[in-house]
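User: I'm putting together notes for a lab meeting next week and I want to include a structural view of one of the chains we've been expressing. I don't have a solved structure, so I'd like a prediction I can at least talk through. The sequence is below, exactly as it appears in our construct file.
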Amino acid sequence: MTKGEQTRKKIVEAAAPIFNQHGYEGSSLNNLMEATGLKKGGIYRHFSSGVRALRSWLTRLQLNDEALRGVQSHLNQNIDNQVAASR
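Assistant: Thanks for the context. Below is the predicted structure for the 87-residue chain, given as structure tokens.
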């Protein structure tokens, strides 16, 4: 995996919990910058339209299997936490 592919994967994996917590509309580039440690240019380099492109990309599920499993795991954990809290 190239360095660029690793960075793109890092952004996608960081975005999943942010989008899960804040929703697509409530997520911001600043959230991604905080979570990844990248500057705007680093994110735009991999997603030219920034958060909008990343949202669209995730929505179309053009994730590799490993990243998708990470998103799925995070979502399952949130569901488990919500079920436990409601008991």
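A couple of points you could mention at the meeting. The helical segments are 3-26, 29-36, 40-46, 51-59, 65-86. The chain is about 80% helix and 0% strand.

User: Perfect, that's what I needed.
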